[in-house]
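Obj: model holo form, ligand = magnesium ion.
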Amino acid sequence: MSFQVFGTAVARGVAIGRAVLVASSRLDVAHYFIADVDVGEQSERLRTARERVASELVQLRDALPSDAPPELAALLDVHLMLVHDEALVEASLEWVRSRHYNAEWALSAQLEVLARQFDDMEDDYLRERKADLEQVVERILRVLTEGTEEWPSALQSGARDFAGEDPLVLVAGDISPADMLRFRDGVFQGFVTDIGGKTSHTAIVARSMDIPAVVGTREGSRLIQQDDWVVIDGDAGVVVVNPSPIVLEEYRFRQRQAELERERLARLRFTPAVTLDGERVEMLANIELPQDAEPALQVGAEGVGLFRSEFLFMGRGGQLPSEEEQYLAYRQAVLAMGGRPVTIRTVDVGADKPLERALPNESRQDAILNPAMGLRAIRWSLSEPAMFRQQLRAIYRASAEGPVRLLLPMVSHGRELRQVRDCIEKVCAQLKSRGQRMGSVELGVMVEVPAAALVLRSLLPWVDFVSIGTNDLIQYTLAIDRADQSVSHLFDPWHPAVLGLLARVIQECREQNKSVSVCGEMAGDLAFTEVLLGMGLRSFSMHPTQIARVKQRVLRCDSARAAALVRDVINAEDPAAAAAAVGWGG
Ligand code: PEP
Ligand code: MG
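Output (holo structure tokens):
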């Protein structure tokens, strides 16, 4: 039966593929494709794990004391029966054979299938056996993951071996930014999640991968079944499940159109972005990993405006990267950009980008209901000075290879800048005494907290440049959690308070001769290109995939006309009037 699921469109385009359902609690098991030759080995792992769990259960049952409640023995018998049930391990082996899933993934996939069958059962007793099934699977997974590395190298290589089968799309309750990173090698054609909003970090990573995604579907992962054919319409925020042949053909046509448009835009790659009246606009890239720098250059990036260094810290089971590891990563990005500036933001963990490791003062964190306002970003760095200095050393060392700009996230107070400058002084002295080479590093601050926008004049003397993080600026100005889909309709960049702050920050920077750029999602949103130009912005930093589209818009804009329009936008009484002032439906 064909039906539709609605959510928030976060990454454009159309993806068509078979649904791979992954429960978020099980996303932390490895998911990777295996090569043909490894099918036997993975199947054997699964069988061996089953046998081990079965014998553990037998031992447990046999060792029960005579006064143990009889229910306990009965429960272990049920678990034993489930372990041997063909519908579990034997059916999982079929995922290994036909889909080339690794053993853990195959078992999790089969669990999703069986869990739904249990959910649909009329009989209460049988329905409740789902919990037993989950426990049995957890046991087998535990055996499987014993002694395996957290980041199997096969994650990349196996996926490539597996080209040519049905395309796949990932459907999950939620996907953490760290998990998104694992799927960056192009295994999935699109993503659907139950939760999330337009600027949640999962959405941002999906956009950086330039693959269609719909988030905030609420029930999507419950309604869509494993292996269903799914169309993700990333423009409209709709997921069509088991589409009819006519609908499918329409979407395939749209896919082809999008491909043609992409080819047309690619021709603008090396055209400088200049407005109709001759204003030069800088087009920078936002990147998550050093290997993103090279492709960014290929699509015309003139530098990196935001390297979200926290992605180097994720998916490592809480193990922080050493100074050397970080240095090599930053150096790779700097070398790839061949003399163009690379803006490295110090680690911005917390809120929806958690580290697996407990934050300092763990018990306090456990009680925090609102992590977006907690120990995040620069606050976290300053509370862990040894870790912070380690990162600064790595960044300063990388500056020996090319121009580096150091960017501080979530600053809200001049005191934080002074503390950072003290740390920098110490780090530079240390590196000098070690005889290590360094270049000159510009210091910049992100304006993403309203307080920073309001006291900008007192911050500017301490910094060389400013980067406006509109994602958080909107979140904190409007008090809308950017990751919460229940309020995502209120997350509105057209709000006069947001536009007023933006205009004010850009103007103040220009008056004080400090370079200013926008690196939040607004920079890559065509609806705002003219508005930002009109406010005086001449530097945009965005996902590389957006660069050509925004450049095309810049080439068609007149900055003087934009400046005149902006007066109406800023003076608009409500978001709809602001959008209408630039002829946008908003
Ligand atoms: C922002 O807040 O706009 C920004 C660019 O930072 P992040 O999205 O990583 O929080
Ligand atoms: Mg931010």
